[in-house]
Amino acid sequence: MLAQLLDLLLPFGRHNPGIHKWAMSTVVPYVRKGLQFRAGTSPAYSLIEFEKLPDHQAVDFLLCPADSRAQPRENIDRDLRSIIGPWVYDTDRWDSSSEDGESKVFCPGWHQVCEWLLSQATLSWPTAVQAIERWSGPEDVEFVHGIALDLPAAHKYYLKQTYATTVLACVYTVQDTTLESLRRIHSILMNLRVYLGLDGGAMSLEQTMKALPDLSFTDMSMFHNDRVATYMRNDLLGRNNPLTRPSEDATNLSLALTRSAYILTLFGSPSSLRRVGDLIFLHDERDQKSEISKLLRTIAAQASKENDDFLLKAREFLLWLRDWGNGTAGKPNAGAATAGALGMLSYSLARNLYDDGGPVRLPVEVVQDSVYDSALSAFDNATNPNRSRGGLKRCDEIIHALPKTVGLSLPGTRRIMALLKATHALSDYRLVLKQGEPFSPVVLRVHSDPIFIIEKVLEQNPRAYTRLQEFLEMGMNMVRAGLLSYRKLDPSTILTTDSELNLAVDIAERRITAMCIEAALKEDDFETAYSYVASRLSMQSPEDSDASPWPVVDEWSWKAALQAGQYIRTERSQQPTHLGTASGNLEIRHLEQRIECLATALRVAPTSQLQEILKSFRRCEEQLDSAIKEEAANELAWGEEARVDNLPGAFDQVNVEQQYPVRNMTASAAAQQTEEAPMSLFDLSRATARAAQRNFTAIPSLQSIRRGVDANNNEHEGESLSRIRKRDQLREAATGTLVSGVGWLIGANVGQNKKETG
């Protein structure tokens, strides 16, 4: 019945314009929609009811699927062409208005069609994209038997502009991030430019990206508004939306976003146009850097080690992504550094591009920063502090990859080299900062107090304190790497960079020395601790720094010296390996060393701490005096015990000292025993002197000397300078006897002595 209705009306339409318009714009859409229903199924509305429907209900009826089970809808372009097209051509469904002397037209029904198409882009993007691909717009209308309707120019212009707006709105609404969707969106935009009379073409997305076109914009100021990101989500069909207003700039922007999304998706970061637009218009630098880092990781995973073509192409894409080929689009700030860092994935490629005079498009400073960022990224991702393995090895290779552009004399290079040295030095020790978590290099770089890590090394490695010089070099490298040597240090108090470095180095040395002293005392190695105090701390003073006055209170040196001065020897204390010129009494030697440590503490300590140190100093001094007196008493007691007079059977002032052998021993045996008894040279001299003193009267020479002295005593009373006392004569005679008796043992010249005496 519906198929025959048109045949009945067509003859009358040729003679009556009203019937002709009604048949083309109302009956034709209704009949074609009704024919889509299955046999036995009637449309929801009759022709009369359909004619009276409001525009939005009529559009829903005309575009709803006749069979809800038919998914997806493959012929939506046919419905737009043969059903919606004729229905919109009824001028009775249009509204006219005049603003500022300019007449404007509006079609509520057509606006509802645009809203429906936009909703399909969100719910089922293939449906919307297919409709746009296969339908050429409102001018593409299918009437009956060559009989058509026409619209005024203003109406046609309105349809053309609103359709272009709808296409752009659908492009921003599609959330699919596959390469297929991006290819089809790019094709739609290229056709839209042709539709608007702009330059377009049939080039595919891949063909376009090979050429990397320069997208020059005539006016980008409209896209730098803070509300642009909001326009991508709200009021997409509005007349004042700069993103969807049909123009060359709007289509260029959408093409640039599509190609940018293609690059991101191609390298493993699937993105839609809206996602790329957020990266650009929200100006979130952190989000941009995160996206760039993700790109670099993916590119590194895909890169071929044998061929650099992939990396070269990726670099070109990322350079284009930065400014869309002309440097005016304000693309992500990390784009330049990204392209430089990409070269670090292949050292030979990096040298060809930046070190050997290649076609460098980046400033030298950007390349240097990129190298440093890549090196530090490898450092942060390292798990082994050994410089010859893993991430630290890669960091070292990166920093040496461009010797001409990134020389070893640059401050940034020196800092990273010092960081590598300090980290590698830690690889020789066991180090666990958190239980169950081994030390990783990034901890050193982000730690608020890197010198504190050395204290942990000393705690976890026995006798590590003996490597003081190694730890001092480690602290020096930490300072040169730009790490803090003291968390309370205020850089504002330092005038110049040199003074800041000197201060940081001095602080590190003092802290590390104090740490080693405390570690030695904990392991009862007082001798090593004392040597550090005597050789290191005693040479320091609170004014060693170049900065004047000293901006940091040295709270480490005096504490370490005081702790060493308060140390008391125990059974576990390590014994000294040599005494040198010190006392042979270990207790006295230890007290003397403690006093030296306390004296050093007094010299380097602040005034507020002197009272406490003085108390320890006095106590130690009293202990030393007591020990010295005790040793003197012991020596005196031993001397008394060693006297011959105190021996059993000895008698004072015996004329002739006789030794009697044991009764049951023969005389020859006793003499042999006496000769074989061991006696040192000094014992022999002492025994001879004692025997000579007791037997002066038995020596004939002494008697003659005595008589001579008595006879000439009166003659020499006036000569005071030549007078020789009797006691001196006796001592001289005894000495001569000793020399003549045992002098040959020590090589004494007896004749010369006698001559000089005469």
From TrEMBL:
Biological process, per Gene Ontology: protein transport; retrograde vesicle-mediated transport, Golgi to endoplasmic reticulum
Pfam families from the UniProt entry: Sec39 (PF08314)
Keyword presence, Transport: yes
Localisation per UniProt entry: Endoplasmic reticulum
UniProt entry keywords in alphabetical sequence: Endoplasmic reticulum, Protein transport, Transport
GO cellular component: endoplasmic reticulum
Domain Sec39 span(s) in chain numbering: 2-638
Highest taxon in the source lineage: Eukaryota
Name the record gives this protein: Protein transport protein Sec39
